[in-house]
Amino acid sequence: MLELQDLTCRFGGRVAVDRVSLSVPQGQMVGIIGRSGAGKSTLLRMVNRLTEPTAGAIRHDGVDVTALRGRALRDWRTRCAMIFQQFNLIQRLDVLTNVLVGRLNHRPGVVAALDSLLLRFSPEERAMALDALERFDLAEQALQRAETLSGGQQQRVAIARALLQEPRLLLADEPIASLDPRNARVVMEALRDVNRRDGLTVLVNLHHLDTARRYCDRIVAMAAGRVVFDGMPAALTAREVEAIYGVPEEALEAETAPPADPAVGAVA
Length: 268
Prior knowledge:
The protein is an alpha/beta fold. It has one domain (2-254): P-loop containing nucleotide triphosphate hydrolases (Rossmann fold), CATH 3.40.50. Helix content is 38%, strand content 22%. Residues 258-268 have low confidence and may be disordered. The strands form two sheets. Strands 6-7-8-3-9-10 form a six-stranded mixed β-sheet, with helices on both faces. It contains ten helices and ten strands. The longest helix has 18 residues, at 181-198.
């Protein structure tokens, strides 16, 4: 169980996240929606402790995450993997090595640094990485440089890398924002597969409302740093959507409609 209690983050005089309290059972897939600047990314970054909370508490299975320091904090970031909009791959390295980077947090700090420099991984770890790539239909690209892949393929590499951390919780910050609809669908299906097959809790920030409805068990909406809706996708009515975004749902759909599928190009 992930529990957020009155979680708050201020940047100077601006309140980015304002006393957010949530309880997320293990294995739930939660879509976090809201306008730009609503506090969605800051919320996820606090859960992973990439951004420090100003006040409040984060607990996971009874552990006070906000109190963790040093090795204990590094261990938490291993158990709480994060996927970013811009993939954060090492573009000059091959796909397999990028996935193997997910194993480095399982080593002591100095050993991890040396293994990273020397690209030193065990046969067992390489087998794990290949299995992950096979799972996401990327085994044939294992020895390609990451920069040669499409955006959707790179995002699936990032998901495979996260799985090699053997996490309990997966955070995804706008993972499909830069992808065309076809690639976005493939990535969202990969995230849902991880949620269903591995039993991982998934928290995903999403720009498109219809995507949140289609893939998530639960939707949390934020506005001005606060939670303004928390419920099942079916409960998110047109009136609720207008209250969240400040415009009717029809206008929102026109404003946020993804670009048409490209006529050419590989599926990620």
